Amino acid sequence: MTGLGAVAGLWKVLVIGWVAFVAMAGAAAVARVSVADPHPRRVVWSYGLASGAMVTSAAVFLVPQAVGYDPQVGGFGVAAGLLAGYAGHVIGHRFSHRDLPIETTTAQLTAHALTAGLVIGAVYSLLPDLGLLLGFGIVSHKGPAGYAAARRLRTKGRSVGSLLLPAAGVGITATAIGLLDPSTSMATNAAVFGFAAGIFLHIAMDFLPECEVGSEVAALVGKGEDDHALLDRLRIHGVASTAVGAGAVFLAWLVVG
Protein backbone atom coordinates (compact mmCIF):
# COMPACT_ATOMS: atom_id res chain seq x y z
CA MET A 1 0.00 0.00 0.00
CA THR A 2 2.92 2.33 0.65
CA GLY A 3 4.21 1.75 -2.86
CA LEU A 4 0.80 2.41 -4.42
CA GLY A 5 0.32 5.49 -2.30
CA ALA A 6 3.73 6.85 -3.25
CA VAL A 7 3.00 6.41 -6.96
CA ALA A 8 -0.32 8.26 -6.47
CA GLY A 9 1.37 11.04 -4.49
CA LEU A 10 -0.58 10.42 -1.27
CA TRP A 11 2.28 11.63 0.88
CA LYS A 12 0.23 13.11 3.73
CA VAL A 13 -1.82 9.95 4.14
CA LEU A 14 1.32 7.81 4.02
CA VAL A 15 3.10 9.91 6.63
CA ILE A 16 0.10 9.74 8.96
CA GLY A 17 -0.20 5.98 8.45
CA TRP A 18 3.46 5.38 9.21
CA VAL A 19 3.41 7.67 12.24
CA ALA A 20 0.45 5.66 13.57
CA PHE A 21 2.33 2.41 12.92
CA VAL A 22 5.54 3.52 14.61
CA ALA A 23 3.64 4.96 17.59
CA MET A 24 1.64 1.82 18.28
CA ALA A 25 4.39 -0.69 17.50
CA GLY A 26 6.95 1.31 19.48
CA ALA A 27 4.72 1.66 22.53
CA ALA A 28 3.91 -2.06 22.37
CA ALA A 29 7.63 -2.82 22.38
CA VAL A 30 8.11 -0.59 25.43
CA ALA A 31 5.24 -2.31 27.25
CA ARG A 32 6.73 -5.69 26.43
CA VAL A 33 9.75 -4.98 28.60
CA SER A 34 8.13 -2.75 31.25
CA VAL A 35 4.88 -4.58 31.98
CA ALA A 36 6.05 -5.37 35.51
CA ASP A 37 6.58 -1.66 36.27
CA PRO A 38 3.63 0.19 34.68
CA HIS A 39 4.02 3.57 36.50
CA PRO A 40 0.42 4.87 36.89
CA ARG A 41 1.52 8.49 36.47
CA ARG A 42 3.09 7.71 33.10
CA VAL A 43 -0.08 5.95 31.98
CA VAL A 44 -2.19 8.95 33.04
CA TRP A 45 0.05 11.38 31.17
CA SER A 46 0.19 9.28 28.00
CA TYR A 47 -3.59 8.96 27.94
CA GLY A 48 -4.16 12.61 28.84
CA LEU A 49 -1.76 14.01 26.25
CA ALA A 50 -3.33 11.92 23.50
CA SER A 51 -6.88 12.78 24.58
CA GLY A 52 -6.22 16.51 24.78
CA ALA A 53 -4.56 16.52 21.37
CA MET A 54 -7.41 14.55 19.78
CA VAL A 55 -10.19 16.71 21.25
CA THR A 56 -8.49 19.88 20.04
CA SER A 57 -7.65 18.50 16.58
CA ALA A 58 -11.19 17.26 15.97
CA ALA A 59 -12.81 20.45 17.28
CA VAL A 60 -10.52 22.82 15.36
CA PHE A 61 -9.96 21.03 12.05
CA LEU A 62 -13.00 18.78 11.52
CA VAL A 63 -16.03 20.43 13.14
CA PRO A 64 -15.61 23.78 11.32
CA GLN A 65 -15.29 21.98 7.97
CA ALA A 66 -18.46 19.98 8.62
CA VAL A 67 -20.40 23.09 9.61
CA GLY A 68 -18.95 25.05 6.70
CA TYR A 69 -20.22 22.56 4.13
CA ASP A 70 -23.71 22.29 5.67
CA PRO A 71 -24.46 23.21 9.32
CA GLN A 72 -27.40 20.85 9.83
CA VAL A 73 -25.99 17.86 7.95
CA GLY A 74 -22.62 18.40 9.59
CA GLY A 75 -24.27 18.46 13.01
CA PHE A 76 -26.10 15.23 12.28
CA GLY A 77 -22.79 13.76 11.17
CA VAL A 78 -21.13 14.69 14.47
CA ALA A 79 -24.00 13.11 16.41
CA ALA A 80 -23.88 9.98 14.24
CA GLY A 81 -20.13 9.66 14.77
CA LEU A 82 -20.40 10.00 18.54
CA LEU A 83 -23.21 7.45 18.76
CA ALA A 84 -21.50 5.06 16.33
CA GLY A 85 -18.32 5.24 18.39
CA TYR A 86 -20.26 4.46 21.55
CA ALA A 87 -22.09 1.57 19.89
CA GLY A 88 -18.83 0.11 18.60
CA HIS A 89 -17.30 0.38 22.07
CA VAL A 90 -20.24 -1.48 23.64
CA ILE A 91 -20.27 -4.20 20.98
CA GLY A 92 -16.53 -4.70 21.34
CA HIS A 93 -16.89 -5.00 25.11
CA ARG A 94 -19.63 -7.61 24.69
CA PHE A 95 -17.43 -9.69 22.40
CA SER A 96 -14.60 -9.53 24.95
CA HIS A 97 -16.74 -11.60 27.35
CA ARG A 98 -17.39 -14.38 24.84
CA ASP A 99 -15.24 -17.42 24.23
CA LEU A 100 -14.32 -16.67 20.63
CA PRO A 101 -11.59 -18.38 18.54
CA ILE A 102 -9.84 -14.98 18.11
CA GLU A 103 -7.83 -12.73 20.38
CA THR A 104 -10.43 -10.05 21.18
CA THR A 105 -8.01 -7.24 22.12
CA THR A 106 -6.23 -7.44 18.78
CA ALA A 107 -9.49 -7.88 16.86
CA GLN A 108 -11.05 -4.79 18.46
CA LEU A 109 -7.96 -2.69 17.81
CA THR A 110 -7.76 -3.88 14.20
CA ALA A 111 -11.41 -3.02 13.54
CA HIS A 112 -10.91 0.38 15.15
CA ALA A 113 -7.72 1.10 13.18
CA LEU A 114 -9.25 0.10 9.85
CA THR A 115 -12.29 2.30 10.52
CA ALA A 116 -10.14 5.24 11.55
CA GLY A 117 -8.09 4.79 8.38
CA LEU A 118 -11.25 4.91 6.26
CA VAL A 119 -12.26 8.17 7.88
CA ILE A 120 -8.79 9.74 7.60
CA GLY A 121 -8.49 8.67 3.96
CA ALA A 122 -11.90 10.16 3.15
CA VAL A 123 -11.14 13.43 4.95
CA TYR A 124 -7.81 13.97 3.20
CA SER A 125 -9.27 12.97 -0.17
CA LEU A 126 -12.06 15.52 0.17
CA LEU A 127 -9.74 18.27 1.40
CA PRO A 128 -6.14 17.64 0.30
CA ASP A 129 -5.06 21.05 1.63
CA LEU A 130 -5.48 19.85 5.22
CA GLY A 131 -2.16 19.89 7.02
CA LEU A 132 -0.42 17.02 8.74
CA LEU A 133 -1.20 18.50 12.15
CA LEU A 134 -4.75 17.12 12.04
CA GLY A 135 -3.53 13.63 11.21
CA PHE A 136 -0.87 13.68 13.91
CA GLY A 137 -3.41 14.83 16.49
CA ILE A 138 -5.88 12.14 15.46
CA VAL A 139 -3.38 9.27 15.65
CA SER A 140 -1.76 10.57 18.85
CA HIS A 141 -3.69 7.93 20.80
CA LYS A 142 -1.94 5.09 18.98
CA GLY A 143 0.98 5.12 21.41
CA PRO A 144 -1.10 4.80 24.59
CA ALA A 145 -3.42 2.31 22.89
CA GLY A 146 -0.51 0.11 21.84
CA TYR A 147 1.00 0.29 25.34
CA ALA A 148 -2.28 -0.67 27.03
CA ALA A 149 -3.02 -3.47 24.56
CA ALA A 150 0.48 -4.91 24.89
CA ARG A 151 0.13 -4.94 28.68
CA ARG A 152 -3.12 -6.89 28.39
CA LEU A 153 -1.57 -9.39 26.00
CA ARG A 154 1.51 -9.87 28.17
CA THR A 155 -0.57 -10.47 31.30
CA LYS A 156 -2.44 -13.17 29.33
CA GLY A 157 0.86 -14.72 28.25
CA ARG A 158 0.31 -13.82 24.58
CA SER A 159 2.72 -12.35 22.05
CA VAL A 160 2.53 -8.61 21.31
CA GLY A 161 3.49 -9.33 17.70
CA SER A 162 -0.21 -9.53 16.79
CA LEU A 163 -0.42 -5.76 17.32
CA LEU A 164 1.50 -5.16 14.10
CA LEU A 165 -1.75 -5.56 12.14
CA PRO A 166 -3.78 -2.90 13.98
CA ALA A 167 -0.68 -0.71 13.99
CA ALA A 168 -0.70 -0.82 10.18
CA GLY A 169 -4.50 -0.63 9.87
CA VAL A 170 -4.77 3.16 9.59
CA GLY A 171 -2.25 3.33 6.78
CA ILE A 172 -3.79 0.42 4.87
CA THR A 173 -7.36 1.71 4.64
CA ALA A 174 -6.46 5.42 4.49
CA THR A 175 -4.27 4.76 1.45
CA ALA A 176 -6.96 2.59 -0.16
CA ILE A 177 -9.57 5.35 0.17
CA GLY A 178 -7.07 7.93 -1.09
CA LEU A 179 -6.48 5.86 -4.22
CA LEU A 180 -10.24 5.84 -4.93
CA ASP A 181 -10.39 9.67 -4.81
CA PRO A 182 -14.20 9.88 -4.40
CA SER A 183 -16.12 12.87 -5.77
CA THR A 184 -18.99 13.99 -3.54
CA SER A 185 -21.53 16.75 -2.94
CA MET A 186 -21.45 19.49 -0.29
CA ALA A 187 -23.94 17.59 1.87
CA THR A 188 -21.89 14.40 1.66
CA ASN A 189 -18.74 16.31 2.57
CA ALA A 190 -20.52 17.77 5.59
CA ALA A 191 -21.66 14.31 6.66
CA VAL A 192 -18.17 12.82 6.23
CA PHE A 193 -16.40 15.58 8.18
CA GLY A 194 -19.10 15.56 10.86
CA PHE A 195 -18.97 11.79 11.24
CA ALA A 196 -15.18 11.92 11.42
CA ALA A 197 -15.35 14.59 14.12
CA GLY A 198 -17.85 12.55 16.13
CA ILE A 199 -15.84 9.34 15.87
CA PHE A 200 -12.60 10.98 16.93
CA LEU A 201 -14.25 12.97 19.72
CA HIS A 202 -15.62 9.71 21.09
CA ILE A 203 -12.17 8.12 20.96
CA ALA A 204 -10.68 11.18 22.65
CA MET A 205 -13.22 11.04 25.47
CA ASP A 206 -12.61 7.31 25.82
CA PHE A 207 -8.94 8.11 26.41
CA LEU A 208 -9.60 10.72 29.10
CA PRO A 209 -7.65 9.44 32.14
CA GLU A 210 -10.09 7.83 34.56
CA CYS A 211 -8.67 7.83 38.06
CA GLU A 212 -11.69 6.26 39.72
CA VAL A 213 -12.08 3.04 41.70
CA GLY A 214 -12.36 0.16 39.23
CA SER A 215 -10.56 1.97 36.41
CA GLU A 216 -7.37 0.77 34.72
CA VAL A 217 -5.37 3.43 36.56
CA ALA A 218 -6.79 2.30 39.91
CA ALA A 219 -5.84 -1.29 39.07
CA LEU A 220 -2.25 -0.16 38.53
CA VAL A 221 -2.19 1.69 41.84
CA GLY A 222 -3.01 -1.41 43.87
CA LYS A 223 -4.90 -1.82 47.12
CA GLY A 224 -3.27 0.19 49.85
CA GLU A 225 -4.51 2.57 52.50
CA ASP A 226 -3.21 5.58 50.59
CA ASP A 227 -4.93 4.66 47.31
CA HIS A 228 -7.59 7.38 47.58
CA ALA A 229 -5.03 10.12 48.14
CA LEU A 230 -2.90 8.82 45.26
CA LEU A 231 -5.92 8.71 42.94
CA ASP A 232 -6.73 12.29 43.91
CA ARG A 233 -3.21 13.34 42.92
CA LEU A 234 -3.45 11.37 39.68
CA ARG A 235 -6.68 13.22 38.83
CA ILE A 236 -4.72 16.48 38.91
CA HIS A 237 -2.17 14.90 36.57
CA GLY A 238 -5.06 13.84 34.31
CA VAL A 239 -6.36 17.41 34.04
CA ALA A 240 -2.86 18.79 33.52
CA SER A 241 -1.98 16.23 30.84
CA THR A 242 -5.11 16.91 28.77
CA ALA A 243 -4.44 20.66 28.99
CA VAL A 244 -0.85 20.15 27.82
CA GLY A 245 -2.01 17.93 24.95
CA ALA A 246 -4.52 20.55 23.82
CA GLY A 247 -1.97 23.32 24.27
CA ALA A 248 0.57 21.49 22.14
CA VAL A 249 -1.86 21.39 19.22
CA PHE A 250 -2.67 25.08 19.74
CA LEU A 251 1.00 26.06 19.74
CA ALA A 252 1.67 23.92 16.66
CA TRP A 253 -1.29 25.59 14.92
CA LEU A 254 0.12 29.02 15.75
CA VAL A 255 3.53 28.09 14.35
CA VAL A 256 2.23 26.33 11.24
CA GLY A 257 -0.51 28.87 10.64
From TrEMBL:
Keyword line: Membrane, Transmembrane, Transmembrane helix
The organism's place on the tree of life at top rank: Archaea
Residues spanning the membrane: 6-31, 43-67, 73-92, 113-139, 159-180, 187-205, 236-256
Protein name, per record: Zinc transporter
UniProt organism field: Halococcus hamelinensis 100A6
Organism taxonomic ancestry: Archaea, Methanobacteriati, Methanobacteriota, Stenosarchaea group, Halobacteria
